[in-house]
What we know:
Layout: H1 2-18, H2 24-36, E1 49-53, H3 66-81, E2 90-92, H4 104-107, E3 110-114, H5 121-129, E4 137-139, E5 145-148, E6 151-154, E7 159-168, E8 176-182, H6 185-196, H7 201-211, E9 218-226, E10 233-239
Amino acid sequence: MISIIVGFVFGFFASYFAQWPTPPRQLWNRWRFRRFRERRCYTLPGSKTYIIPACSGDTASPYVSANALGCVKAITGMLQQSGYSEGHDFDLVFPNPSSDNVAEDIRTENLILVCGPRRNQFLASLLDEFPDLMRDIVFDSDGPAFVYRGKRYTAERGRDWGLVLVKKNPYNLRRKLVILFGLTSVGTKGAGLFYARDGSASDRMRAADILESTHGEIEILLSVEHTEDRQTVRRMQPLVLTTTSRQLSPVAPGTS
């Protein structure tokens, strides 16, 4: 009996440090992650996830802005906190800044796209192929503005607008496609913070209760308030577009 107990303890710690089989703590974190994501629309199916931000093409930094980097950091932090490891469970992929060169085998997995179609060439190519993914959004060619469900939104002093979209991946309907972007880079950062931060959990749940489709998809429009230097998000306010124009409570980005 003692030998069995000693063997179990030894095997437990050996597996914990060797990472195979999956350590119990990591399994617990993954279970908690699935529970914590509140609603079906926010839960990523059990598969590898690829984060695909817009790429600058610069050798010094592949990110198009510090705010885009902040968005990606929020997402990777969420995944790592939930027991997912970079390289094994998720990875970063930087597409060509002027053309779509994302590999076919990546397209069929869970995808998180950062920045809008003007910056992210993979998203632009995706919308050319599947225009219904964002059929309620019309981009303004004259500046940072878009029309969403018939209403025009423009960037103002101290406020940007962001969108969080969770859809089925059109290349593989068993996987998820998450799109995070704003009118400007600070709106993109706000979308990423809202999607990933613990402090936004209650508003994510409430938005899903109102907006989530029967297929587990959702679109959330965000008012993103920021500092004058456009580097710090002060709060994100989801606007639920219903017949009563109901608004949810403001969310401070640093709340956890």
